[in-house]
Amino acid sequence: MFTLPESWVWDFWLADDGDRYHLFFLYASRALHEPDRRHYRASIGHAVSSDLQEWTRVTDALVRSDAPAFDDLATWTGSVVQHPDGTWFLFYTGSTLTPAGNVQTIGYATSDDLMTWDKSPTNPVLRADGEWYEVLADGQWHDEAFRDPWVFPDPDGDGWHMLITARARTGPADDRGVVGHAWSPDLRTWELRPPLSEPGRGFGQLEVMQVEVVDGSPVLLFSCLATDMSAAGVASGATGGVWATPAASLLGPYDVADAHQATDDSLYSGRLVRRRSDGRWVLLAFHHSGSDGGFVGGVSDPVPVRWDGRRMELLEPVPLVD
Fold first, then answer.
1. pTM to 2 decimal places
2. Any idea which GO molecular function terms this record carries (predicted)?
């Protein structure tokens, strides 16, 4: 488990350089006292490990930029991939506060060694466009939700794809969550495309997405709390947490109405990684809710998982942490 005594740790993502695992995580000082205030103070920390369990913190990856900038409030969740030329790309969410509310856009930084990162001068490279995706001016949600970029190579070698936490422009306000989509030929320039799922499937937003082939089947992983589900979803008794759903392919389409809870809300922001020691898929998540319902923070140890064709099963329990 990875925790910081002085800071809350929550959303995270991983990279494997073949020798060490790299953990990139959001953190903010516990001196804020109220956990909900952490979002507007988030920086991106960095730790390394040889086994996904014992972590050593190293120099932070990114902090917010000076105003005015797309990330002058906070730096939020992203993903890391390596270009064929060896350059590492860290895609992340930039958050800025406008008079109308919080606006999220997507940028990137590059590194030769995963340790020192330089933000691109062309940031942001993607934003909600108002054609396919809801914007703040629509007045339907508490912020302009366009974040959590998950980047992966095209299965047929045709560039790169990005999945994005986004919202459609139609449907009830609490049921517009969709899998946003963008494509790039080179990781530097991006073309926004229509969503890969439909609204009206029970979710106001689908956070921290990831898609992988697990036990031979494409699987979409995302997270959503009950507070961000539709009224119908809450009425069904769902509590929120990490969700999983079968996919037709790595590029969908995704019917998130078929999603099931892989965990309850004690865990959030689940990430799948193939463990190098035995080739097995394992799940890590951050500890979200304690036994008293309060926020916890801190990244769990890895838990082996399997996919039975329709559902994801955790093969070991994850101990509760308060």
1. 0.97
2. hydrolase activity, hydrolyzing O-glycosyl compounds
Residue listed under structure tokens 């932070």: 60
DSSP string, 22-72: EEEEEEEEGGG-SGGGGGGG-EEEEEEESSSSS-EEEEEEE-PPPSSSTTS
What parts of the chain have a pLDDT lower than 50? Answer: none
| Residue 156 burial (10 A CB sphere; 0-12, 13-18, 19+) | exposed
Interacting residues of 135 by C-beta distance below 8 A, sequence separation 6+: 128, 129, 144
Domain boundaries, the chain: 63-314
Q: Do residues 257 and 202 touch, judged by C-beta distance below 8 A?
A: yes
**Residue ranges of the alpha helices (H) in the chain?**
231-235
Residue 128, CB-side half-sphere exposure with 13 Å CA sphere: 29
Rg (CA), the chain: 18
Determine phi and psi for 283, rounding to 5 degrees.
Answer: -115, 135
- Please tell me the CATH superfamily of domain 63-314, with its number: Glycosyl hydrolase domain; family 43 (2.115.10.20)
